[in-house]
Design a protein that fits this description.
With 144 residues, this protein is an all-alpha fold. Helices cover 49% and strands 3% of the residues. The longest helix has 18 residues, at 124-141. The protein is globular, with a radius of gyration of 16 Å.
Amino acid sequence: MPTPGKPKLLLIVAYLRSGSTFTSSLFSQQPDSFYVFEPLHMVVKTVKKHMALRYVNGTVRRFPQGISDNPQSLFRECMDPWLRCAFRKVDTASLLDNFHLHYSKSIKPLLLCVKHIRSLTPLTRYAINHCIRETVVKCISANL
């Protein structure tokens, strides 16, 4: 049973070319929904290249061996902030992923705001912190 005042969480997991993007676009059209397309896209891409995940607060997490140790644990850890609207704890590459411009209507205002501020000043961390507030409020107030 859903808890009153708490959003319903829906995680769509599907095979490639199975219609999941179409299905999720139906949910994202609801005015009281908050939808993010493939939130782990940049995590996988970054870790496969043995690069570090960098966070808004300045911390860095390195993966010299890739994710062969325990990928499920890493994916759970990286999904948690998305599901809790804790976007300051999402790695910067995932938060600013260009996928969101095309598929994540809910994150698009954040990206446009960051792009505008970044054109004025190179302080990306400042830009993200300034722009993220509205996105957090929208996520927290969403019913789905």
